[in-house]
Known about the structure:
Elements (H helix, E strand, L loop, with lengths): L4 E5 L7 E3 L14 E5 L11 H8 L4 H4 L27 E2 L15 E5 L9 H14 L4 E6 L2 H12 L9 E7 L5 H9 L3 E5 L3 H15 L2 E2 L5 H17 L7 E5 L4 H15 L8 E7 L4 H8 L11 H13 L19 H10 L3 E5 L1 H13 L6 H15 L9 E5 L7 H8 L25 H8 L3
Parallel strand pairs: 5-13, 6-7, 6-9, 7-8, 10-11, 10-13, 11-12
Antiparallel strand pairs: 1-2, 1-3, 4-5
Helix pairs in contact: 3-4, 3-7, 4-5, 7-8, 8-11, 12-13
Amino acid sequence: MTESVFLRCIDPGCHATLDVDSVVHGCPLCGGLVDVAYDWDRLPTPGAITFFAERWGGRGRPLDLSGVWRFRELLPFAREEELVTIGEGQTLLQTPDVRSLDLDLMPGRLGFQYEGLNPSGSFKDNGMAAAFTMARRLGRRLVACASTGNTSASMAMYASLTRLPDGRPMRGIVFVGSGKIALGKLSQALDYGAQTLQVDGDFDACMRRIREASDRLGLYLMNSVNPFRLEGQKTIMYRVLEGMSWEAPDWIVVPGGNLGNTSAFGKAFMELQMLGLVSHIPRLAVVNAAGADTLCALFNDHGLRWNGGEWDRECVTAFYGKMDGAGVKASTIATAIEIARPVNLAKALRSLDVMNGVVCRVTDDAILEEKARIGRTGFGCEPASAASLAGLRQLLSKGVIDRGSRVVCILTGHALKDPDATVMYHMGREEGGAAAPPRRFSNSPVRVADDPDAICRAIGQD
Ligand code: F0G
């Protein structure tokens, strides 16, 4: 299977190809991002799409149970015996009640793709199953990532579970910024036994340092600049399609941080269309937090576009130069997406092109409010995930998305990832502990005396 897989620079002016086993963080010729590419003609194409869903019936077989590897013909870069899985991707397209969300969409038109149900509690497990498959195949023992939290949790989990073909355990090394990582995520990295370096800087600084360290020490980089991560994350779209009987929705709405999902989703649809497995490509809405809005600023305010691969690199360099000159750093309550220099910017532009996408930014207040609303529908998520619903509400109010559209929001991480954010919202506290005015959906615990009458009075009646 693997002889028909290679790496290819995404820049159409370069399109350099490399052996699939090359370990690169960019194209050696032009420095651009690289894709995992397939010679699809030489691969078995499934006869019918239901093939994938039928596999799920065979839950006793780990590769068929996995929501990633059940689709293995659509990411055919390794042999079956090489695939790493712990049962990731058991996630479903859920249909929340749009009325309880007070959303101006027709009933039944909204889906939540609930990726918080993954083993480490976020969508990252989809990508890690694929990237660990590659790391193991290459015999790479030291795996590393910079992270706002979820990547490190997922990587640490797979590192502790995966053994090299010769039986040696892997070793996970995590770089997290000082301060802003949510405790649920940090606790996972520690518990799974990864060496955790709290670098004195933010995520962008961690990203820079880990790239240097991986070059110097030969660490295998597990951030989404690793193109195999994105192969696994394509399957989020396959599961959405499965949930809709392979009729693509009108819109996919996703929070944007390092832009790995954004990049993976566009690639998924490019390939599905090329293989004749979808009749149309949904539109994509990428939602930035207002305090970490590089993509939004470049796309909307500076008109940056993929432009057939000829995207305006000077515009981006000037933008970052200005940002650094003014000492601007990313800052948002949605710490998962607190990123000012998204490493997948070029691939994200390609996805926005392929999926006729839009980008918007939402405030921290809107994120917290939507998070509370999502909680009330029974689908707990962390702040970054709720950016998708905040973005949808904004795009509906602006008429960019109309109320008859079929929309899927990606809920990227579980509510328990960041309990502090939730408790602060409901109990009326700011970061740092200062009292804050009550929020719209505040649900504070009620203090009550240890006394039956007082308890009954507090409960009251409906
Ligand atoms: N939502 C959650 C819960 C995340 O953890 C992340 C990214 C995103 C959304 C953004 O996804 O990077 O594909 O645009 N978290 C990374 C991390 C950066 O280190 O855990 P993206």
